[in-house]
Amino acid sequence: MGPFLLLTWLGRSTCRMGVSWTPSFVATLPPSCQPPSCLLPPPSAGTLTVEQIYQDRDQFAKLVREVAAPDVGRMGIEILSFTIKDVYDKVSYLSSLGKTQTAVVQRDADIGVAEAERDAGIREAEYKREMLDVKFMADTKVADSKRAFEMQKAAFSQEINIKTAQAQLAYELQGAKEQQKIRQEEIEIEVVQRRKQIDVEEQEVIRMDKELIATVKLPAEAEAHRMQEIAEGEKVKQVLIARAEGEKIRKIGEAEALVIEAIGKAEAEKMKLKAEAYQQYGEAAKMALVLDALPQVRRLMGMGGGERESCLPLSPWGLRLDPDTLPSLSLSLSLSDCCQGGRTSLKGG
To answer: Nearest 10 degrees: CA dihedral of 157, 160, 161, 162?
Structure first.
């Protein structure tokens, strides 16, 4: 025979007259028995098992209230609230269920604890790994930073060395420039001193030249100037004399030319008259002309060549006689020529 179920039901009911009372029901039932509906009406046979009643008391109380409310209502009682104080049996079946549930709960708790510890270990391992990763990354960053610092420090040191070398070189170069500038200034000073010395020497030479000029050159130059003035005066005198002589000769020439021109005109007139006279006399006139020229021809033949050139005889008509042709001279007188110009052509034959 199975265990009996002891139910204690406390309810607070209100009759229709307004009187409140609290009934108490205690029933000892076997698991398969159903209590009378006046005591604890169950929902329906086989709806809930003992385990369900023991484990889900809220659901059991709800079903009891739904089923019992109409019955007690016919009695003029209204169920306001009720509480299931306890559910137990004498054979400790329900307590065994509790132990099993407790064991399950304990097991679940242990499993939960183990899982929690496992998860905690996993999380701790993950945290440690993350920490190690972070530490590694931090160490890596520190190493990188240190390496970058060392590289930057080396770069700075190199730059400082370069700047120092450049500064030293610039200092040496500036020093060399300053030395060169000083030397240039010294050279310029020496040049200026040399120029001053040259100027002094030039001034001394000028002074000596002036002294020499004052003592020697000036008298000589004065004498030379005097002689030059005399020579220039003499030259001007000679030029003036030459000009006067030239003017004299020109005047004389002009006068002689006028005289010759007048004589020529007179001779031409004379010859014209003679030609007219000879034209009247004929051959006798020609012979008279030849005879008049013979004394001059004889005189020219006795002279030298130069004397003949300088002394050219003229015929009575003003014609030049060539001495070389005089030995074989043959005369031919054209009366018509004499009439035209008073000229006689002498031909050697």
So the answer is: 120
3-state secondary structure of 35: coil
Task: Please give the structure tokens belonging to residue 145.
Answer: 């930073």
The b/e string for 145-170 (b: 16+ C-beta within 10 A; e otherwise) is eeeeeeeeeeeeeeeeeeeeeeeeee
Q: Tokens standing for 317?
A: 């008509």
SS3 per residue for 206-260: HHHHHHHHHHHHHHHHHHHHHHHHHHHHHHHHHHHHHHHHHHHHHHHHHHHHHHH
Residue-wise pLDDT for 77-108, tens only, equals 888 877 777 777 788 777 777 677 778 778 88
Between CA 168 and CA 162 the distance in angstroms is 10
Q: Name the residue among 321, 271, 279 with its Cα closest to residue 301.
A: 321
Tokens encoding 178? 């300053």
Angle formed at CA 125 by CA 122 and CA 128, multiple of 5 degrees? 150
How long a stretch of residues is the chain?
349
Q: Which residues touch 65 (CB under 8 Å, ≥6 apart)? A: 79, 82
Angle at 57 between CA 51 and CA 58, to 5 degrees: 140
The one-letter code for the residue type at 181 is K
Structure tokens at 158: 């190199």
Task: Choose among 62, 36, 28: nearest CA to 47.
Answer: 62
Alpha helical stretches, state H, 26-92: 50-55, 57-74
Domain residue ranges of the chain, discontinuous segments joined by +: 5-91, 282-348
**27-58: per-residue pLDDT in tens?**
334 444 444 343 444 444 347 787 788 778 88
